[in-house]
Amino acid sequence: MTLVSTNRELLERARRIMPGGVSSPVRAYGAVGGEPPFIVSAEGCHVTDADGREFVDLVSSWGALIEIAASVASVEMVRFVSSGTEAVMSALRLARAATGRDAILKFAGSYHGHADPLLSRAGSGLATLGLPDSAGVPAAVARDTITVPYGDLDAAAHVASATRLAAIIVEPIAGNMGCVVPDGAFLTGLRAVADRTSALLVFDEVITGFRVARSGAQGLFGVRPDLSCFGKIIGGGLPVGAYAGSRALMSLVAPLGPVYQAGTLSGNPLAMAAGLATLELLDDVAYATLEDRGARLERELASAAKAAGIVARVQRAGSLLTLFFIDRAVGNEDDAGTSDRGRFARFHAAMLRRGVMLPPSQFECWFLSLAHDDEAIATIVDAARAALKEIG
Ligand code: PMP
């Protein structure tokens, strides 16, 4: 084996030993064409691939890296696990145990990890690949998951009245059909529906936790879920997840209670240290800076699209944003599905050629971090202006 390999050589090797050559499907660039770069080094927000090409990175380890500051959410007890998937899967087991019910309500286009019951209408990777469901999920398991459109409070209320739900699970700001910020009334409405029907309200804050605010989306909207799931940022780039809630609920988890859940590497010192270091850095100044840079990028992208005569819409929550090639607001999965994916693929390629690496799907968020300084934002904006003109 030679010590120095090209992107192509690495891709061929990876494809021989890993399905698609990747650890997570959307990374294979199927949605945008071309071949994924193999990142061999990184410095701040800049990454270099095996062919020596440099990019400003907006994938940011899929949101795990925020590189600065935080504090804690309004929870009484927490259990650490090793991924967001595990966090959600365990929270739902707990919800089922607490309520003695089986059914779960989720929203189309939301992704909650790859546990069997949650792989219906599950957002980015699946929407991108055009797979409504995963193969290998038993029909009996899928039957207990009911899906309604994101943002549709009436539909949620109807299902909750007709079915004994263990949990209503929601991304309080959706990040897996691109960035979709709901009307606050949607989340307060879900809280009321859950209370009325004795279902538990579970916020999946794997993306939003410690990103949109130190107190998460629940802090921004002032809605208190029964259970919250975290991941990404709380591991500072290492594999971590957590689920959390009131002492009464969390006391049902083993060894305190009858809900079994375990993990060899749960709470391992390396990941905990990385997470702690990240959260310690996230202070008010950090969030204000992230908001400023996000707002600037939003403004500049909208103006670049306008200058290029391209119909587009930027949706943003703090340092999370998506540029949709669409002529109206995106509020749910159906809306997102009508955006111009071909145009996104051309835009992605044109940005890559100019040294900016966007997430390779129209249905992913761009993740900004504090490492994206003024110069990096300027690089992104200049590239976007030229790329949008080119593809116009
Ligand atoms: N929930 C949400 C909202 C997510 O975005 C993700 C991952 N993108 C998950 C759960 C699953 O987390 P993990 O990939 O760490 O299993």
Topology:
Layout: H1 7-17, E1 39-43, E2 46-49, E3 54-57, H2 60-63, E4 77-81, H3 84-99, E5 103-108, H4 124-129, H5 139-142, E6 145-149, H6 153-162, E7 165-170, H7 184-197, E8 200-204, H8 216-221, E9 227-230, E10 241-245, H9 247-250, H10 269-281, H11 284-307, E11 313-317, E12 320-324, H12 333-337, H13 341-353, E13 356-357, E14 366-367, H14 374-391
Parallel strand pairs: 3-13, 5-6, 5-7, 7-8, 8-9
Antiparallel strand pairs: 1-2, 2-3, 4-10, 9-10, 11-12, 12-14
The structure holds 4'-deoxy-4'-aminopyridoxal-5'-phosphate (PMP).
Would you list the SSEs in sequence order as H and E?
HEEEHEHEHHEHEHEHEEHHHEEHHEEH
Number of helix segments?
14
Q: How is the main sheet built?
A: 7 strands, mixed
Overall pLDDT? 89
Radius of gyration computed on alpha carbons: 21 Å
In the predicted model, the low-confidence regions spanning at least 5 consecutive residues are: 68-72, 127-132
Structural class estimated from helices and strands = alpha/beta
Strand order of the largest sheet: 4-10-9-8-7-5-6
Shape type: globular
Bound molecules: 4'-deoxy-4'-aminopyridoxal-5'-phosphate
The N- to C-terminal Cα distance equals 44 Å
Give the helix proportion (percent range): 25-40%
Give a count of the beta strands, DSSP E runs of length 2 or more: 14
Task: State which percent range the strand residues make up.
Answer: 15-25%
